[in-house]
Amino acid sequence: MYKALKDKINIKILCLSIVFAMISFFTDNIIFDKIQIQRQHYLTLKLIYVILIVCIGQLICKLVYAIKRSESVRTAVKFAGICFGILMVFLFLTYPGIWLWDNMEMLNMASTMKLSGWHGYYMQCFFVFALMAIPFPVGVNICQIIIIASVMGRIFYIVSGWIKNKKKAYLLILFLLLPANLYWSLMAYRTAFFGFFYGLAVLEFINLWKNKDCNLIYFVLLYGFIWNIRSEGYGLLLFIPLIAFKLFHSEQKKNAVTFLIGSLIMAGVVSMPIPSDRNYLASAIMNPLECMMKSELSSDNLQRDLGNIDKVFSVDTLKNSEASPISASVEGAAWFKEGFWDNIYCSQEDWNNMLKAYCNLVYFNPQLFLKFRAETMLASINYNKSTITEIESLVNGAEGQFGFESFNGTKPINEGMRQFVQKLIGYEWGGSFVYKVGIMLGSAIVPLAMVFVLFVYGVYCRRKELWLSSIVVFATIFIVFLTAPAANSMYYYSLYNSMYLLLVIWGIIKTDGFKIPYKKINDKIVVQNNDGGRIEWLDAVKGIGMLLVIFPHTGLLNENIAKWIYSFHMPLFFILSGYTFTRYKLSCKDFFYKLLKSLIIPYFVYAAGFCIYQVIPNWLWGDEIFRLYSIKEFVVQINCTPLWFVTVLAISEIVCYIIMKVNKSPIWVSVCGLSLFIIGIIYNLQVRIYLPWNADLVFFAVPFVLFGIGLRHVLNIDKVMKVQTLLILFAINVCSELANDRVDMVCRNFGNYLLFFVAAVSGSLFLIGVANRVRKNRALKYIGKNSFFFLGFHITNLLILFVICAKLNIFQSPNEKTSLMLVVVFCTLIIICILRESTLKIKKYIKKCFVLLNKEKKC
Fold first, then answer.
1. pTM (whole model) above 0.90
2. Cβ count near 809 (within 10 Å)
3. Which residues touch 66 (CB under 8 Å, ≥6 apart)?
4. In DSSP terms, which residues pair with 359 in a beta bridge?
5. Which of 400, 738, 770, 810 is the most buried (most CB within 10 A)?
6. Which residues contact 324 (CB under 8 A, 6 or more apart)?
């Protein structure tokens, strides 16, 4: 027994671990409120702490042996050391007075954990054990940095095994240098911290899938830990059936059973009730820290603090202040001023004014100061005069100005905090250029944009693993957005952090020469019928889409159904236009000739016909019935009849032609589409001027046209659009539509722009799949072939039929709205069909007359 243990356990390290653990028995009086914690199994916590220290010691011992044997492990440990060094340097650069000054941050975190679930309980234990190991308030931050560095070392080890040039794995350092990580990774119990574990879990899953070899105990513990710490980790539960399936179909069936049993145990732990007495740990941490904070605010330190200010800044005005600042914060401010912040953020005068406002805030309202962690916010932002004014007004009693009333129960706490942070940091494009760039890089914009680019890239190259994983990421984020109120904030970093990590890893693999085979662009039409090579399902989907345009225009459709239709029916036509767009191969002259022939000239012809056609009801019933549109209005075309779509499409095709002529690379096309979409968002929010021919809508139309162009080269309608796929697309569309406001492109109402795009794409693909199943329907194909005609004339016919029904008193009862709608739409379709056939015959007759005239001239 002794020999067996001796082979597996290092006795010397065991003794050292126990000695180190026992030291905390003499230092815990500095940190913990023993009166509170003794009543709640303090000895049990100490015993668990000793066991943890012993286990960590043995793991370090095994790591030392591995370092001696393996070059890969040595480089991974070296990388982890670099990560630890970087974070520690920035910790002391950012918070030089943290040894005392950080008490307020610790207080806030401990109080937050009282409100949390299982992950709050675990983090309370983490706080206790970390403070036992490093008995200073900053000990929690240092322990967190050690964990982050260890996770990054493991990630480095995995990634370096996937690439040829091992040194390129050092590019992972770029991930640590993101503004979100440099700031939030230094603060204990922040969501960015959990993003490291999400990224590691995904990489471990890929590693297991590739190598079929993994320590399942470690694997189960890792995933179990993630499921317990935060709610968004539940998305990783999807990996359980995949891993089990992989193991069962390999030679590791026993391991598969072990994995499933371990997963069930972890799921059981998640579903267990939270301990009712979990708050005692937070109280044990908070009480002594509150005492330490109060001592820092005592009047005994007043003269010393003011003297420190005078020595550092030599500002006479601060001598007359009655404020009592925290001494360590003054020392920290001096450090910032002399060492780091001097040339970047503010002038000497602004800095002094900021410090005075800061001290006043601490003195006059210390509780408010603690509640909003003003010391950390003020130590890391760009200061300007408006910020100082807002802080001073806060001190003078304007507590409701920044959403503080939310803490009294009138709003969700996260919304109030978000409003406060946005005001305090000048998020609405206040501050320096450096700060703006930092906010952009540290927010959700960059990773979401890159995931979208990967999705388009994967679709274009027909790489299922790329576009499917992108959809999974978007779906996970969407679920979190619906379930977690804090996810609506730009400061919800855990998911974004993991996406950043995976994108950096993807870039490393790509730069290492990892090639993705391109599929040759196939411009042949996939599904053809016998009449002129038209795409059958394309006519069918246009027909369905046109019906979805006509029914809401009656004004009698159910509001919820109309909201669902509006979520995608116009983007559908832009996507279909992109699907059939091949004019980028033409010369500039031929392109504009075909554009004039197919869109511009028909637009003016239909506009003229519409102007003539609208005279009829006004001649019959008077000018007050319908508004008469002039030719001038059609030339300018600002929100004028459903033909607005034609002008927007014409300009969009010109833009797409230019983009495709420059470069046909999927990355270039994706970046252009995304850039135009973002410009459209900014224009719609900041400018919102309706341009002639609705040119401002082109920013939103072009991305859909480009999406359709990419879709043409990858969409195999028979294989992709199965029933299961259609159900998933329908579910995504409905969820996005329900979560968003009503969309109306021509009125520039988009709601949440991300939800708008997701709903539009998923709804369009769903309708394409449905149309493929009814592509033989002659009525739908007829409407689709003549969709231009139906688009131009359905409004006037609907109005005429409504007036006729009102004159004849038909279907005027409130209970007969559905009948009225169906009758009017059916009659409208019949009338337009008659008009269409009549115009075709007239056109054919005129053409025949011209042929006869030409023959007579020749004779």
1. no
2. 8
3. 73
4. none
5. 770
6. 297, 298, 299, 301, 302, 305, 359, 362, 363
